[in-house]
Design a protein that fits this description.
heterodimer, A: mainly alpha, B: mainly alpha, 6 helices, 0% strand
């Protein structure tokens, strides 16, 4: 039972992180919940000995989540089914959020969620989860320099789009 | 904090050259400072969103509404059943008339069936001769 408990404790901390990353990529909360559970089950099935092999359980599970979600998105595009689903949810989210006070924060989220998935995960990992460039590089399997360049490009792009939206409003 | 310092940090930020520490500095600055210059307000939106997004957690069972709804549903369903039973005359005691008539018809039917069967039995007595016919036929064949 001590083995089980250690896994559960590890997972408690990781679960929110996995969920946030999955949600950034899959957009829909329900799919993000499913993804979180699937990833946790996979981690559990690896068994204790394998899990302790990994230098960092966290980095490993983040990588796993990323791969899982990208696979999901790929199969979705192939089937061309659930895409509309997420669009729909986006639309209702959007309407609800318009009523909310922190309207402009939701604009930011909208902007981020409209980015291509590779850019979305980069923003998620750096700005929200606050990983070092080195960690992001290993998770995304990219050179560190490339990560910096991409991130700089996305930051500028987001700011530009945000300013454009504000100007439309005025 | 010096606005000049923030200015240079923001430039570095856009180039992807800030460290995590510097980025937290920026986040703290933008969340604490009011009366920001107009051109910085967009940064404030982004940084406060990032800070808020970090606190989102896995939703733990939203089933409360379901358990609340269930008893209400149960009551509504049972009322509906009672109502339809009432409509279909399940509780009507006025069906005693129908029952008496049905019993009368049944009795009549029984009488008729008895007379039919007694006539049938009459005929069957004559059939007994067939057995004799068989034995005599066998004798002749031998």
């Amino acid at each position: 039972m001590t083995v089980d408990n250690s896994f559960i404790n590890q997972i408690q901390d990781l679960r929110d992180k996995i969920y946030r990353i999955a949600k950034r990529l899959l957009i829909s909360t329900e799919e993000a919940e499913d993804a979180t559970q699937d990833v946790i089950v996979k981690l559990w099935q690896m068994g204790e000995s394998k899990r302790s092999d990994f230098k960092s359980m966290e980095a490993y599970s983040v990588t796993m989540t990323k791969n899982y979600c990208l696979d999901r998105l790929k199969s979705k595009q192939a089937q061309n089914v659930a895409l509309e689903d997420s669009n729909f949810e986006n639309a209702t989210d959007f309407l609800q959020n318009k009523i909310e006070l922190r309207d402009e924060l939701k604009w930011v989220e909208q902007l981020i969620d409209q980015l291509p998935e590779k850019e979305r995960i980069l923003i998620q990992l750096r700005e929200i989860e606050q990983y070092e460039f080195e960690e992001i590089a290993s998770i995304l399997n990219l050179p560190e320099g490339t990560v910096r360049v991409y991130l700089s490009r996305i930051r500028k792009k987001l700011r530009k789009q945000f300013l454009e939206i504000q100007n439309y409003g005025n | 904090m010096e606005t000049n310092k923030i200015e240079t940090l923001l430039k570095k930020y856009l180039e992807g050259e800030t460290t995590l520490k510097e980025e937290t500095l920026l986040k703290v600055y933008f969340s604490e400072t009011e009366n920001l210059p107009e051109e910085w307000k967009s940064y404030q939106q982004f940084f406060s969103f990032y800070q808020e997004a970090k606190n989102e957690s896995y939703p733990i069972q939203k089933k409360k509404t379901k358990t609340l709804l269930q008893p209400i549903l149960l009551v509504a369903a049972s009322l509906a059943i009672l109502f339809t039973m009432q409509l279909s005359g399940f509780f009507n005691s006025s069906n005693s008339y129908d029952q008496i008539e049905a019993e009368n018809v049944f009795k009549e039917f029984q009488v008729q069936m008895k007379s039919v069967s007694s006539h049938l039995n009459n005929g069957s007595q004559n059939l007994a001769y067939l057995a004799y016919w068989n034995t005599t036929a066998e004798k002749l064949i031998k």
